[in-house]
Amino acid sequence: MDADTEQENVRRLLTGAEIRSVGRAAGMGVLELTGAHGEDLGLHLQCAFRIVRDGQVVLGSRDMSYVRDGAGDDAFDTFGTLYDDRAAILNRVLAGARPTVRDVHQGAAGALTLEAAHGFSVQAFPDRSGGEEAWRALVRGGPHYGYPPGVV
Fold it and tell me: Is there a contact between 24 and 30 (Cβ–Cβ < 8 Å)?
């Protein structure tokens, strides 16, 4: 599949989807979404990323590097990071706001932005050279698309 087709597939898949939750699997950010037609979707972020609301970063991939006050040396493994705390708060906000993706932009070098309702956006910034997977948009049990094209 060529890069233009892959970009169009990502745009079509994510536009109109409702962002349900955010979390992580080890160091990978995970967004759970419900597609415009009820599909169970995911966005896996293995590169630098952030979630912004009304111009303010509310969650960022670097938040995984900071241990929550009182968490032990195993904070990353026991979900005791600043990321985990902020994700829990954000998930409560998402449950009430139920933001839907209005537009999907893909830029140079795999940059990905989801513009959503209620001032939300998800922004991914591949920051590693080479051909490693940076992000993946998927239908559970169905097609997967990502960056770089052909790696997913």
Answer: yes
Query: How many angstroms separate the Cα of 148 from the Cα of each of 71, 129, 139?
Result: 36, 11, 18
99 upstream amide cis, omega within 30 of 0: no
**Closest among 72, 49, 71, 74 to 59, alpha carbons compared:** 49
Q: Among candidates 65, 56, 53, 1, which has minimal Cα distance to 27?
A: 65
Give me the torsion for CA of 49, 99, 22, 58, rounded to 10°: 50
pTM over 0.70: yes
Measure the CA–CA gap between 16 and 14, rounded to whole angstroms: 6
pLDDT in tens, 9-25: 999 999 999 999 999 99
